[in-house]
Specification:
By secondary structure, the chain is an alpha+beta fold. Among the domains are: about 360-425, Trypsin Inhibitor V, Chain A (2-Layer Sandwich), CATH 3.30.10.20; about 430-495, Trypsin Inhibitor V, Chain A; about 500-565, Trypsin Inhibitor V, Chain A, CATH 3.30.10; about 570-665, Trypsin Inhibitor V, Chain A, CATH 3.30.10.20. Helices cover about 25% and strands about 25% of the residues. A six-stranded antiparallel sheet has the order 1-2-3-4-6-5, covered by helices on one side. Strands 7-9-10 form a three-stranded antiparallel sheet. The chain has a three-stranded antiparallel sheet with strand order 12-14-13, covered by helices on one side. Helix 3 runs antiparallel to helix 9. It is flat, with a radius of gyration of 34 Å.
Length: about 675
């Protein structure tokens, strides 16, 4: 017995205990009373419910995540509003955050890190294809189950690409500074390549044991993402294979155009590395960027745990302070002149001056035949080479499906470009065996064709002569001895005559013995299968058949009899005393739970509401929630089962009044 009533949201989700706390919400382990399963309930902080911007972002999270159904994404089941706050119901994942694994086990082995990153890339690729950018990819938002399944969660600051309305404001940066992309740190627009950069940072941290940039403040870290070159992974962990380091560095390229074009391209390269194949990664040359000319966003507040952080853009002078002395002004002038000279020199080299090689946008050769693509790139002064190939269809043969660096990237004359293309190998031609007019049954003919390398398809026809026996094959669509491609479909003609039988409708509602006997009388083979769905059909009787009653089938066909396991229709107990209601439910074979509520319609101790509603058919022993009138602060406790008595106690409101936020938000619903 307990001394307090567990909070219930929307008369369905019973809170158990808090499991996490983020920047804008708390996450609880809860129980779905309707489906009787554990769920994770994410509840927005009550003080934020009055902030329309936060509420809109919270609603967007639910809509964005609810539309994503992928094995590597934590699904959203439900969302809504209750007691002046908002909540989201998600799958409860019994796993460990990747941040905890990195903290206790890093550096991870290269194959393990690459495999985790590939699964994250799968989730991101799926989200990007559905118009959603995560924008807060970090180890704390990745869960690893005991079976090793990777799950990406928390689309709290995701936005729909191309949406008409923007939840975030101009000048605000969403995310966590350690995993910012340079464009995100500067408050620019983001796309899927920003998530690719963040995943590159996560992979770097898995391999090295620490992120590429650290600092005393989010501003300092964001500045490094934009302006500084990180230590190469192999300089910190020499055991990292060069190919995997190349993948990390290309994913973390400062310019979006130098990164993998999509998260799926990153996944493909990671899987090549895992299989021991040559990777397509060609990271850009590591050259420090020119001096900063744009403001780096400064942080207003950094959230803890898996939450989202919000940063306000401020001028660079505000961070570092104004220059006040003549010496500082002179030094600044010298540095400015040096910077201008450096920019002019490297800019001139990029244009072909000062002995430099001219840079230009790489042509897009996707969809071209390999020979044409090689010729096109050579004509531009590049060095194209054939790269990894994949087996495709005949129509795709020799067509280019990927190029590294990506199309429209800035390249220089003489730079190597790797082209991936489709290959095609025609299946061998095999001789079709003879299966017609040999007295073979359909099953025997299908087996013969399968062993010869073909697929079979059945059609039925009436007997052409008295010698045609029902069920035998009397024709085939491809003539015996013809050579066709392996795997081709050969249609066989099977004699059906008028001997098809109809599954009797009378078996529904019969007990399984009588139904089985009736099927046998029709030369059909009965098979018994329990139907676990709650039903008012008495246990042991037939609920339905598969195929359905009335269907015409061949004699000897197996017919599944779906047998009811019983159930009960919930009786209305509203208005009864708690003890009378409990007795009625026990008589119906149901169990119960007690929750408190306040009401002026019913007296204290009476049932004011019940869940599920009367008339709903449920399985025997299903727990019905009884909301018993006991005052605003009443606490009711219960022990119940289908075979044991119940105990109900009501505490006076004057002795249990509480002002805690959780009691106010999650108390029983009032009538």
């Amino acid at each position: 017995m307990t001394s307090t009533t567990p909070p219930v949201y929307n008369e369905r989700y019973e809170l158990r205990n808090q499991i996490a706390r983020g920047g804008t919400a708390q996450v609880y382990l809860a129980r779905d009373l309707l489906l009787d399963r554990p769920v994770a309930l994410k509840v927005l902080f009550p003080e934020l419910s009055a902030d329309h911007a936060f509420v809109e972002r919270f609603r967007r999270e639910a809509q964005a995540a609810a539309n994503l159904s992928h094995p590597n994404i934590v699904p959203v089941f439900d969302w809504g509003e209750a007691d002046r706050t908002h909540f989201i119901v998600m799958e409860y994942v019994d796993g460990e955050p990747l941040s905890s694994i990195i903290r206790t086990q890093a550096p991870l082995a290269a194959p393990q890190a690459a495999s985790i990153a590939a699964d994250i890339a799968k989730a991101l690729s799926y989200a990007h294809r559905h118009g959603v950018v995560h924008r807060d990819v970090k180890p704390g938002n990745v869960l690893i189950t005991a079976d090793g399944v990777v799950k990406v969660t928390d689309f709290g600051i995701a936005r729909a690409m191309g949406a008409d309305t923007q939840v975030t404001q101009t000048g605000l940066v969403m995310g966590t500074a350690t995993y910012f992309s340079p464009e995100q740190a500067q408050g620019f627009g983001v796309d899927g390549r920003s998530d690719v950069y963040a995943l590159g940072v996560v992979l770097y941290e898995m391999l090295v044991g620490r992120p590429p940039f650290t600092g005393e403040s989010p501003v300092a870290i964001a500045y490094q993402h934009v302006r500084e070159v990180p230590p190469t992974p192999r300089s910190l962990n020499p055991s990292i294979p060069p190919a995997l380091e190349a993948i990390v560095l290309q994913a973390m390229a400062k310019q979006p155009g130098d990164r993998y074009a999509t998260a799926d391209d990153l996944r493909v390269d990671l899987e090549r590395f895992i299989r021991g194949q040559a990777v397509a990664a060609h990271p850009p040359a590591v050259v420090p960027p020119p001096p900063a000319t744009t403001a780096i966003p400064a942080t207003a507040a950094m959230g803890r745990g898996p939450g989202t952080s919000v940063y306000e853009a401020v001028p660079m002078e505000e961070e570092y302070g104004p220059r006040r002395t003549t010496v500082w002004w002179a030094l600044a002038a010298v540095l400015l002149l040096v910077a201008i000279g450096v920019v002019a020199y490297f800019g001139g080299r990029a244009l072909g001056y000062f002995g430099g090689t001219q840079s230009f946008a790489e042509p897009d050769v996707h969809g071209m035949v390999l020979k044409q693509a090689l010729s096109t790139l050579k004509a531009k002064g590049l060095d194209p080479v054939p790269g990894p190939s994949r087996t495709g269809t005949k129509a795709e043969q020799n067509q280019v499906f990927a190029q590294v660096p990506a199309a429209n990237s800035t390249v220089r004359k003489g730079q190597q470009v790797t082209l991936s293309y489709w290959t095609y190998k025609a299946p061998p031609k095999l001789s079709v065996p003879n299966v017609s007019n040999l007295g073979l049954t359909a099953a025997q003919a299908e087996s013969t064709l399968s062993q010869a390398g073909f697929k079979a398809n059945e059609t039925f026809q009436k007997a052409n002569s008295p010698t045609d026996k029902q069920g035998t094959v009397v024709g085939q669509s491809v003539k015996y001895g013809t050579k066709v491609a392996a795997g081709s479909v050969v249609t066989i003609k099977v004699v059906s005559g008028s001997n098809l039988v109809t599954i009797p409708t009378a078996v529904v509602g019969q007990n399984q013995q009588a139904a089985a006997a009736e099927l046998k009388a029709e030369k059909l083979v009965p098979q018994i299968q329990a139907d676990n769905a709650p039903s008012t059909v008495p246990a042991g009787d037939v609920v339905n058949t598969n195929p359905a009653p009335g269907t015409s089938v061949k004699p000897g066909t197996a017919v599944v009899l779906q047998i009811s396991t019983g159930g009960a229709a919930i009786t209305s107990v509203v208005g009864l005393s708690a003890s009378a209601a409990e007795a009625q439910l026990q008589q119906d074979g149901l169990s119960y739970r007690i929750a408190g509520m306040s009401s002026t319609q019913y007296p204290t101790g009476a049932v004011g509401k019940q869940f599920p509603a009367p008339g709903v058919v449920v399985r025997k022993g299903y727990p019905v929630v009884l909301f018993v009138v006991g005052g605003k602060a009443a606490a009711t406790t219960t022990s119940s089962s289908s075979t044991s008595s119940s105990t109900t106690s009501t505490t006076s409101p004057s002795t249990t009044t509480s002002t805690s936020t959780s009691t106010t938000l999650a108390g029983p619903p009032s009538s």
